[in-house]
Amino acid sequence: MLTYLKDLEARGIHPGLDTTRQLLKHFPHFYKDFDPDLSQTCVIQVAGTNGKGSTAYFLASILQTAGHKVGLFTSPHLHDIRERISIDKQWISPGDFSSGLWSIKGLAEDLLKRELIKHMPSFFEYIFLTAIHYFSREKVDFIILEVGLGGRWDATSAITPEVTAITTIARDHTMLLGKRLGQIAGEKAGIIKKGVPVVCGCKVGSIAHRVIKDTASRARAPFFNVIDAKNHLEILDNHSYQCSYTTESEDYTFNVRLNGLHQTFNAAAAVKVIQVLSNNNKSIYVSKTAICDGISDTFVPARIETLDTSPRVILDGSHNVQSTAALTHFLKEKQKNRLTLVFGVLADKNYQRMIALLLPYIHSVILTEPVSNRALPAQKMLKLFKDKVVLVRKNPGEAYRSARQFKEDILITGSFYLVGAMRKIILAGG
Fold it and tell me: Which residues neighbour 377 within 8 Å (Cβ) at sequence distance 6 or greater?
């Protein structure tokens, strides 16, 4: 089945929600062993250029801490495709994953034969539908859906959530979403549904904020900001990331376990979503203690993750300019310099600007390539490191071994594909 999925991933995507909607529509007729009705399940959908994954993890942790059974759907994965589907922080089992996929395939083949769909599901649609199949069967109380790409045509938009959230907007995936921030914001705002509350993390008054707010207004969707004149986030302790988040109605004080000041904002976004959710649905109650404990208990791998190896390794999945800027803010804050950088990136990224941001913090460089047919050849980056010691090692394992020879702290970044592969190598003992 994994081979089948890899072939599908290589074929790309089919814009539109018709296939996903048709399969969801026919779930009740095809599956007799459980009731796939989601009407009793609260769904939260999270979109954005950066921060959506961390915000989704914060939400899942908060709701689980409050005593609920929570399904979480995220992407991409680092090591194992099953990471994308979890309940209460436990990945879907190999058996449930395999049986779910084959079951979705059987339903899709039946609908294709009856000409109710025009093509088989894409890679992402398969994983998403498998997640819904699993969450429905296991009767979770909440489903947290992280949007894969954009929002308007993302498979997760085939379900109407109770609350939607859009974290930040930046230039990424410009070939698919557009080159202008307004265009990208418009695609992300495609998750907004009629009457469904929207939580927006974009800076008030920015182009993205205006586009999202206008879209919400047209859909008559109640609109809420994470930060504005009535909602304030204060960092009380930079070392422990202790925060105070004040809204119109409540004050919250919490510690963020994840590294980087940007994660305090993602945590605040999750708090705002929970607050809007509780106000919108009086049957849902989440205590302040559950919110604060859930935030402090949230861990997401490869988000400025530090491994206590020798030398020490910092792993970060930054893969665009905005996320790289957040990473370098952390490096500056913690006075990290003279690092050995292991860097690999996909060819469609603004790698020149990403590298320019990293240069002040690095001494030596190992250029490598993510395991992807979209990877940028390492040689093409050599000219961007004129005054640095630079080695090219296309194999991730060789790249890590070469980096250790410099005996400086190692920073691995540029792509989730790269970071995932190297994290696995390091945890296995190098």
Answer: 369
Query: Phi then psi for 148, rounded to 5 degrees?
Result: -80, -55
Give 344's contacts (C-beta < 8 A, 6+ positions apart).
367, 368, 369, 370, 375, 376, 378, 396, 399, 414, 415, 417, 418
Enter the DSSP assignment of 83.
Answer: G
CB 193 within 8 A of CB 164: yes
Tell whether 261 and 122 lie within a shared domain: yes
pLDDT averages per 10-residue partition of the chain, 430 residues: 69 82 86 65 94 97 98 95 97 95 93 94 94 93 92 92 93 57 88 97 94 96 97 90 94 96 96 96 93 97 95 94 94 94 94 96 96 90 92 93 95 96 90
* Furthest CA-CA distance within the chain: 65
pTM (predicted TM-score): 0.94
List C-alpha distances in Å: 380 to 50, 162, 173, 194, 357: 26, 46, 20, 47, 18
Alpha helices in 281-371 (DSSP H): 288-296, 321-333, 351-358
Q: Does one domain contain both 252 and 319? A: no
Q: How far apart, in whole angstroms, are the C-alpha atoms of residue 177 and residue 198?
A: 21
Same structural domain, 336 and 276:
no
pLDDT of res. 30:
73
pLDDT at residue number 174: 47
How far, in Å, CA of 234 to CA of 204, rounded?
Answer: 17
CA quadruple 358, 340, 415, 332: dihedral sign: negative
Tokens coding 199: 């939580």
CATH number of residue 254's parent domain: 3.40.1190.10
Is there a single domain that holds both residue 187 and residue 328? no
Residues 400 and 272 in one domain: no
CA distance 238 to 260: 9
Q: Quote the distance between the C-alpha of residue 129 and its chain's center.
A: 18
- For the record, the structure tokens of 224 come out as 């809420």
Range of the domain at 346: 305-427
Number of domains within the chain: 2
